[in-house]
Amino acid sequence: MENVIQPQPGIMDIQLYQGGASHAEGVSDVVKLSSNENPFGPSDAVKEAVRKSVHELHRYPSIDHLSLRRAIAQVHKLDADRIICGVGSDEIISFLCNAYAGPGDEVIHTEHGFAMYRISTLAAGATPVEVPERERTVDVDAILDACCFRTKLVFIANPANPTGTMIGGNEVARLADGLPPQTLLVLDGAYAEYVDGFDGGASLVDSRDNVIMTRTFSKLYGLGGLRIGWGYGPAPVIDVLNRVRGPFNLSQTQLVAAEAAIRDRGYAERCRAENARLRTWLAEALAGLGVPSDTSCANFVLARFSDQDEAEACEAYLRSRGLLVRKVAGYKLPNCLRITVGDESACRRVVHAVGEFREVR
Ligand SMILES: *Cc1c(COP(=O)(O)O)cnc(C)c1O
Fold this sequence. Notes:
Layout: E1 31-32, H1 44-53, H2 66-76, E2 83-86, H3 88-100, E3 106-110, H4 115-123, E4 127-131, H5 140-146, E5 151-157, H6 169-178, E6 184-188, H7 202-207, E7 211-216, E8 229-232, H8 235-244, H9 252-263, H10 265-288, E9 300-304, H11 308-320, E10 323-324, E11 326-327, E12 336-340, H12 344-360
Parallel strand pairs: 1-10, 3-4, 3-5, 5-6, 6-7
Antiparallel strand pairs: 2-8, 7-8, 9-12, 11-12
């Protein structure tokens, strides 16, 4: 008999998210450089806050996240009433799709855009629309050309993953101002912390009613395992998202950890500076070995090889040396490998191994 128990249309079109590898067969001393994690982990203040939180695990957490929202608002000089916190920025992306897009609606993402935009769009029953990029960089005109009366959301990450490239504030403003009236622009700022002095688009949010920014504690703050993100948008949009948000979506442990993380400005600044230093060193050393990359604004380098075969062979060689990097053929970059900027010893090991690989080839 035919199975009449079926999911909503679009669900079976979802390709499962591919995470970064974390184990290498038969190799000890493995370094994971495949998920853009902070190699130094969370700050000591965060570890202490998590330790203390275990005594309150029988209590339900805060529903309104007020203390964390106030800390974020203070640090970034934002309006706490227009901040929403979620289980990673992934949950904010999901809230946006569920609240604003459904069957018959279109959601735009770019050619090399982050996989969750497409997954959350399909989960909401809406139609993902992929727009070309120009030389691995978001193309504002291509996005504006793809917009129509069905377009409800446009997702761009700035800096972008997995390309590491950015577009300037004037270009983002031109995009916001050129959108149809029913379209909301989502600025994914997962890597905004890595750009010294960059507000992630917060000022654009403040000056427009069609822009929302998402941020995360998973990258610079070293808390990918704890799952905390946030969004900053116009009051009516935040009100909508709070209606689809579960009241207890974040545990008290998540909330206190995030607050300790964002208040530890010294640690965040040291991680940002160390990433910038090692990223430059890594990119230049790889270029010296004949492996170029675009100037990265994030915590990874997108290394370009001559073709897919060479990229895959290099990934396998690095893996055999305990160095796990990310293949990005699924992001339409088959000749590239995304390499997270690790600590100094990890960066040296990568360069040494890529050098060996280039020699034997
Ligand atoms: C890592 C990343 C995120 C963060 O996801 P979380 O759910 O907050 O861990 C969001 N967007 C992009 C582009 C990313 O690379």
